TrEMBL record, chain A:
Domain of life of the native organism: Bacteria
Coiled-coil features, chain-numbered ranges: none
Name of the protein in question: Putative tricarboxylic transport membrane protein
Source organism of the structure: Streptomyces harbinensis
Protein's UniProt keywords contain Ribonucleoprotein: no
UniProtKB/TrEMBL annotation, chain B:
Keyword flag Signal: no
Domain spans labelled DUF1468: 28-211
Comp. bias regions, Acidic residues: 95-105
The protein's name in its UniProt record: Putative tricarboxylic transport membrane protein
Keywords: Membrane, Transmembrane, Transmembrane helix
Taxonomic lineage of the native organism: Bacteria, Bacillati, Actinomycetota, Actinomycetes, Kitasatosporales
Amino acid sequence: MDQLSHLLEGFGGAFTPMNLLWVVVGAMLGTAVGVLPGLGSAMAVALLLPVTFSLDPTGAFIMFAGVYYGGLFGDSTTGILLNTPGNSSAIATTFEGHRMAKAGRAPQALATSAIGAFIGGIIATTLVVFFAPHLADLAGLFGPAEYFALAVFAFAATATVVADSVIKGSISLVIGLSLALIGIDGSSGASRFTLDLPPLFDGVSIVVITVGLLALGEVLFVASRIHRDPPAPRVAFTGRPWLSRGDVKLAWPAWLRGAGFGVPFGVIPVGGSEVPTFLSYATEKRLDKRRKKRMFGKGAIQGVAGPEAAGNATAGSAMGALLALGLPTSATAAIMLAAFQQYGMQPGPLLFERNSELVWTLLASLFIGMIVLLIINLPFAPMWAKLLLVPRHYLYAGITVFCGLGIYATSASAFDLMLLLGIGLLGFMMRRYGLPLAPVLIAVILGPLAETELRRALAVSEGDVTVLFDSGIAVTLYTLLAGAIVLTAVNRVRTARRRRAAQRELVA
Amino acid sequence: MTTTTEKPVPAPPGADRPSFWKGRSEFVVVAVLLALAVFLTHGTLTMTVPPTAASPGPQFFPWIITGLAYVLAAVLTWQIIRNPSPPPAPPGTEQDPEQDLDQDLDPGREPAADGTPGAADRAPGATRATAAEPAYRTHTDWRSVGIIVGTFLLFTVALEPVGWLLSAALLFFGVAYALDGKRPVFDVSLSLAVSAVVQLAFSAGLGLNLPSGILGGVL
């Protein structure tokens, strides 16, 4: 029970008045950013990165812990009340959540999602505490070929399974991989695609890419539809967010099942929590069909509980993968990785030895952060929803100013602002034509890893490609991938056929 | 994209009468992808490789991506020619809930592909939404987008010489105006207030220096 004593020490470190203040501030800011439409936890971390610069590393990471989960607690609020999910991880929650809100059960939906997020997060973080050190041992089994296989797995999975069109997903992937190429090549020192501009020698920062694609791109997209789309109807929010015993009875198995889906996905880099939230949603729906009184379509509480627990469980175990393996499995984790590096720390197997105190304090503050979040989200959800009453044009004007601020404060260069605008336009174009954004981020995050490991593997084998398929782990990953792709293809053909049949019926 | 014209930018050729280009504005994506591919080709060819570089050199991976880019551009072209998008179909963004709802109950998303009867129910709603669209000449409100892009450019250029206070206020005002801000006087004061609060919070509270610019002596 080595971990327990470490964790207790961590709590000791976290329970100072100053650190508690940072958790609360982080949780508040994270929830606020998360509640805003279009901005999720990745944005919360990216925009608040400069804010943490003036803190010591421990304080900074404690605040990140609050921001990280805060963004996740907040994003489903918008989805439930306005039918506009704050983040892709909240889409699955939105379906039934908004229906519950329309049926006058908005407080219950918000409570279910807050408790679900709490349960998912607690389960995943507990598992991280006990297994992260073992996960770090696992990293020793991974050589270049295995890491490359893992990256290929992540690329293909995000481009095919997560995206709704394989071609569009792959285009996003290529865009991301190209962005990742810019800069000085680490292993040879060659300058690549920098146009001889010194600011590009270090590559394009992940923060610029995230803020540009997700926030500025969203502002431009909203602007492009300003006179086109009718504004989203707002749902009145009345009543207290208490769950009846019947609600809890329906929700708790869904919470646990959701967490079960979420935990493994945090460790696999497939673009964050989209896949597990949808898996959980589909499962709950299927289970609902067996019941006498079907609730799906009318605002089923399980449809909120499952995905929400899955989303936060993914976020929790993603933190474990980041700390123990140094492997960022989502955009949020990648920005956290950048933050670690800014403080001169390298997440990975050695982190638990070198910065043990900080890691355990961080893990302890994840628990504290979640409790704080439950407190500020459960009774005060109506207050957060008031944020949505800010007129839309001021909201987006503020977001734009914070994009500019966030980027300028991290880099102090006008060049990065230009880059931000360019990437914002790219994000706008991608939204306009339905190109998914998640593959870009995954490609930017894992592209350099994939390239380095591929070249390393081929250099050792002197150009022999078979070395890539030489290990059990790599072959297993490729097999899993092939299986998933075949399954998706079959499913897609089947639904397409069914849809055509349905359309024919409709016409007839 | 950076034009800040008064009226909506003229629609792409043939927006009035159905032509080959109708519903095929997605060729923009092909163009961007091709431009990217050409840029990568040029960059990879002209790359100066240090003589010390090990065998799969710095050009190895870029070639793979370049190849992929050409192939995908070709495939997408073929796809657009075969099925042009139904005129301004709401773009499938992660932030567009209706669309995502459709996707969920529709094909695409693998996890939900359990044959929901909802797919057929929803279809008429979706077509109605698109049928209401053609009242506008372009899918995109280029005026709003143009104003925001223009303001952001101005902000970028002005930030260092003019200072945070004024340029951020300009940015806030520009975006609010583009998104239908109707009260110019109030908006200007709000913009100044927002940028002042940010500057104060960051320089006084967090010790981060934002450029003070021409107002440096006054503040």
